[in-house]
Amino acid sequence: MRVNINLLNVLAGFFIIADVAYSVWAMIEYGRLEWVGTIGIGLVAVMSIFIGFYLNRSFHAQGGALPEDRLDASIDDGDPELGHFSPWSWWPLTLSIAATLTFLGLAAGVWIAYIGGAVFIIAIVGWVYEYYRGYFAH
């Protein structure tokens, strides 16, 4: 995590320098400040500072180094139990199709969004109750 913190700090410095250079270049080229690029590059610098600050606070709050940061760690040290997943489940695919139809409806025609909403309701109910019926019922 220490490497990530240092990398984000270096990136923040780079984007601050790039923002100043962009602003100066725009002033020379156009005679006025180009606001979109100046604010955009500045916000990327701010984002890098925020993420680096968050990682720094998280690193100091966790009380020790992560397995990724230790040279003597093995692969099994960084392999936690992530939870229970269904590799045979088709409901996540159905849910992504519902999201695709909904966003397509927002772009092309509202009537498609209604179909996407109906498919979404079916998919989310099916995914939640997947283990209450069929071969894998509790």
List the helices and strands and how they pair.
Elements lengths: L1 H29 L4 H27 L29 H17 L2 H19 L10
Helix pairs in contact: 1-2, 3-4
Structure description:
This protein has helices at residues 2-30, 35-61, 91-107, 110-128. The chain is mainly α and 138 residues long. It folds into two domains: 2-71; 91-133. Helix 1 (2-30) runs antiparallel to helix 2 and helix 3 runs antiparallel to helix 4. It is flat. The mean pLDDT is 90.
Terminal CA distance reads 41 Å
Bin the strand percentage. under 5%
The residue ranges in which pLDDT falls below 50 over 5 or more consecutive positions are none
General shape: flat
Number of strands: 0
Major sheet characteristics: none
Class inferred from helices and paired strands:
mainly alpha
Identify the quaternary structure here.
single chain
> What is the arithmetic mean of pLDDT?
90
Helix-residue proportion: 55-70%
- Rg calculated over all Cα atoms: 24 Å
What number of structural domains do the residues give?
2
The count of helical stretches stands at 4
Query: Could you give the order of the helices and strands?
Result: HHHH
Which features would summarize this protein structure in a list?
138 residues; mainly alpha; 4 helices
Structure summarized in a few sentences:
The protein folds into two domains: 2-71; 91-133. The longest helix has 29 residues, at 2-30.
